[in-house]
Amino acid sequence: MAHPKEILAKLDANARKSLSQNFLTSPHWADTLTSAVTQGETPQAIWEIGPGLGALTSQLIKKANAPITLFEYDKKLSAYLRQEYPTIQLIEGDVLKAPLEELAKKAGRVAILSNLPYHLSSPIFFKLVDIKSYISRVVLTFQKEFAERLIAQVGDNAYGALSLIAQLHFKITNLGILPSGAFYPPPAVASQAVILEPHNPRNLDLETLCKVIKAGFLHPRKKMVNNLKHVFPEVDWAKTMGDQSLSPNTRAEELNEAQWIALSKAVNSNT
Ligand code: SAM
């Protein structure tokens, strides 16, 4: 594939910062990411979010075991992709406004690949949580700091509600760090690739559990017990925490997954 700089010049386009356009130039990473998404369970569809100039798409079509759909916002890049890959379905526009659940339902089981537009990491991640039951696996490249939050464990600086929610919904495998030089133009920070595989091994009520976690972390400067009281006033949180040998001064980031699971049972037993 030609260098993104050359393709952009032909298209009379520039890399748009507002769309987080950093195009992959590393053949090694294009191969690693596309191999990771086509491994394992055979999906019924493969989606690529933000295909850009097709660095991943060109590899994906060689390995794909299911029809591909591309979601691209940029009009010029969409026109280019249609020309390069005329048989591949392309949905132009904001992926966050696309009817993902409807499309996933129609497809059955979907594998998803993206060198994410970094400014959309969090909203896209939570969209994926919403359609998790249709997903076989997801391979994503995030800004390194965001990926660190996803995989952080209690005691790590990056640990928080996002870590807990991500790990409750997905088995997360770290695929490694992509240096800034793997992209054109190079982003200010390094990137990190992960595989997300949906799971719920203990058959937990994840909806309630994640609501309790979000509530506990609501106002980081307030005591966790007060945050929880604010969202779930029907529960005696001081007693519930005491039952778990936790002081009412405990901070949300001090609790591990098992302790959050124990606390969330108090909400279920009050409903
Ligand atoms: N996949 C390409 C690659 O690896 O070279 C491009 C990755 S670039 C980091 C992010 C891509 O997401 C760009 O093509 C950008 O135009 C696209 N994008 C940005 N915001 C989007 C949105 N809301 N919906 C769909 N695509 C978007």
DSSP strand count: 9
What fold name stands as the CATH topology of the largest domain? Rossmann fold
Query: Could you say which structural class the secondary elements and strand pairing correspond to?
Result: alpha/beta
CATH-defined architecture of the largest domain: 3-Layer(aba) Sandwich
Alpha-carbon distance between the termini? 58 Å
Class of the largest domain in CATH? Answer: Alpha Beta
Strands ordered across the widest β-sheet: 4-3-2-5-6-9-7
**Count, helices:** 12
Work out the radius of gyration.
Answer: 21 Å
The CATH homologous superfamily of the largest domain is termed Vaccinia Virus protein VP39
pLDDT average, as an integer? 95
Low-confidence parts: none
Order of SSEs = HEHEHEHEHEHEHHEEEHHHH
In percent, how much strand structure appears in the residues?
A: 15-25%
Q: Identify the overall geometry.
A: elongated
Q: How many domains in all?
A: 2
Biggest sheet statistics: 7 strands, mixed
Bound molecules: S-adenosylmethionine
> In which range does the helix fraction lie?
40-55%
